[in-house]
Design goal:
- This protein is of the alpha/beta class and 361 residues long.
- The chain contains 15 helices and 12 strands.
- The strands form 2 sheets. Strands 3-2-1-4-5-6-7 form a 7-stranded parallel β-sheet, with helices on both faces. A 5-stranded parallel β-sheet has the order 9-8-10-11-12, with helices on both faces.
- α1 packs across α14.
């Protein structure tokens, strides 16, 4: 089988990496396409995958409109040359529309539920795979599975917890305590009209947390000059080993808060609308704590972080929470490999017997 995977964000490289590796072992041919947004190219260079960059991601609204034309044309030429049997993506408009033009199936994964984007890819998509946490329905094309995107690459079947310590990567002493702050650019389509930590709050958070442990900042945009010394400077592919051994991850990224949770690290997520999966991770498993970006909630988030930092046996407590979650969830990559290899019969199997997915634990 020949599969074209379109990448829209660095997290999508992580999402599809174990799938791509497994499918290549099974002698399928995989080709990845992407627009350079943050550090996709660095992650792909660290892999053994074949890929093509369509150029820089556009940030402005007019740029996004132009990109829809430009990147679709590039996708058409690339697909005609590669001759895929199937397209796969995380809600890619380009993959969906070109798959439809070429009369090929497009399988999409979805967890953001940005309906502005969904309306642009759903009509051209064969099926949409989503987690089974409570969320708005996507109609007949939706297939639910018990898991989160982050379990595709951070499930114990795919992530080596003992490979290297976060302290070693960061150049810290063995068992030295640290935490990660994550700030986003607020330039994604689903971020329109939203904002996160104020500059004042960023300084306050760093000042307070520095009293308890080392602080490292991962930021999509430029930091205030006085916070530059806290900037996280590691190879992008090492980030999950750093999250694994952190005491806490706090910030504006739902993905990073959820990644932390998959690694038994408490995550604090700041966002006005939140995410359906982070809400389940809080309400059902106590692994993530959700707050809005209001000044009052930012203060509450800061206090929650301080409370966690001062807790006894924090890591052991969250390992138990993570293990409880894993008992209810599946190996998302193993499920996806089966679903794609068995497509379209896999749709009928799951509609007739949704519990079939639990074979992939």
């Amino acid at each position: 089988m020949r599969i074209l995977i379109d990448i829209g964000h660095p997290a999508h490289v992580h999402l599809f990496r174990p799938f791509t590796e497994e499918m290549m072992k099974r002698r399928h041919v995989i080709f990845l396409t992407f627009r350079q947004k943050e550090f996709e190219i660095e992650l792909l260079k660290a892999s053994a995958f074949d890929y093509k960059c369509f150029g820089r991601h556009y940030k402005s609204f007019p740029g996004k409109i132009w990109g829809l034309v430009k990147f679709n044309i590039q996708m058409i030429f690339t697909a005609v040359k590669f001759k895929p049997d199937l397209f796969l993506s995380h809600g890619s408009i380009y993959a969906a529309q070109v798959a439809w033009l070429l009369n090929k199936p497009h399988i999409s994964l979805e967890d953001t539920f940005n309906f502005e984007q969904i309306r642009l890819y759903k009509p051209f998509t064969s099926c949409i795979l989503t987690g089974d946490y409570p969320h708005p329905g996507l109609g007949q094309k939706e297939i639910n599975y018990s898991g989160y995107h982050e379990l595709a690459y951070l499930h114990p079947n795919h992530f080596n917890f003992s490979k290297i310590s976060g302290q070693e990567i960061l150049g810290l002493e063995k068992n030295e305590k640290y935490l990660i702050l994550r700030f986003v650019s607020w330039e994604a389509t689903h971020d329109k009209g939203h904002s996160g930590f104020t500059s004042k709050m960023k300084r306050e958070v760093v000042g307070e947390y520095s009293k308890y442990c080392s602080v490292f900042i991962s930021s999509e945009k430029e930091l205030p000059m006085e916070l530059e010394k806290y900037k996280l400077t590691i190879k992008p592919e090492m980030i999950h080993y750093v999250l694994k051994d952190a005491l806490l991850v706090i910030g504006e990224s739902a993905t990073m808060a959820t990644e932390a949770a998959m690694l038994s690290t408490p995550g604090i997520f700041i966002d006005n609308t939140g995410r359906f999966y982070t809400k389940e991770l809080e309400e059902k498993y106590g692994l993530v704590f959700n707050f809005t970006a209001s000044p009052i909630d930012q203060e509450r988030a800061l206090k929650k972080g301080l409370e966690l930092l001062q807790a006894n046996n924090l890591k052991k407590h969250f390992i138990k929470k993570r293990n409880k979650m894993l008992q209810n969830k599946i190996d998302v990559t193993a499920f996806l490999v089966w679903f794609v290899e068995s497509y379209p019969e896999s749709i009928r199997i799951l509609k007739d017997n949704p519990d079939y997915q639990y074979r992939f634990k």
